[in-house]
Amino acid sequence: MMGTIAEYPVESAAVSRTGSPAVTLATAVCRFEDLLGATAADRLLEDAYAAQLEHMAAERGRAAQMPERWESPERVLRAPALAEAVRSLSAVVQDMLGVAAPSGRMGYQFVMRNHQPAEGRESGPTFRACVDPKGGENGRAVSFVYTLHRRPREFTGGGLRIFDTTVRDGHPACADSFRDIRPDHDTLTFFPASAWHRFQWVSCPSGRLMDSHFSFEGWLA
Predict the structure, then answer these.
(1) Domain residue spans in the chain?
(2) Residue 3 — pLDDT band, cuts 50, 70, 90?
(3) Theoretical Cys-Cys bridge with 41: which of 156, 182, 186, 220, CB 3.0 to 4.6 Å?
(4) pLDDT digits (tens, 9 = 90+) for 11-21
(5) pLDDT at position 217, please?
(6) What fold does the segment set 2-220 form as a domain?
């Protein structure tokens, strides 16, 4: 298991909307490649694929059209090997990111993406994991994304874009600068839950479910 981290210095060359210098804080990212190893990662992909087929059939019927995006909560699809790996890395990741997740709580969901981007829809929405849909703080401290796909990769897109943070009107805001993370198989990426991020839309010419972009997307609190 190999891990790398990239941290960027604070930049102050930008100009805010009020004309005064704006501070941009680069988002720290911690990335681990070959996390579970080829055999375990391929087994998890097969298990996730089978669980998704079964759940989609029960939810939509076997003749239903495949959705562009589908997600399964942890209670439907569990990944104990991945959860164990995340917990084993939790302490060092918190130190490297400079973010504390003191409660030890963890959650995740399994997500499939397989859509053809329409004009003007090349990326999904930008959001922060520390904020719930109603805008309230939820206590999440660290986000993580674990990516799986068939090899060779049969789709394009699917990258994770993590934005830096700036200040607007006295409050943290999404900066124009960002870092793109490749959707590599068996790769786990951690970043602060307060960071704005989004996923690039996936283009999968075959349209087959097994050729989709798969990910476990979770958090530590």
Answers:
(1) 2-220
(2) low
(3) 186
(4) 333 444 455 55
(5) 96
(6) Jelly Rolls (2.60.120)
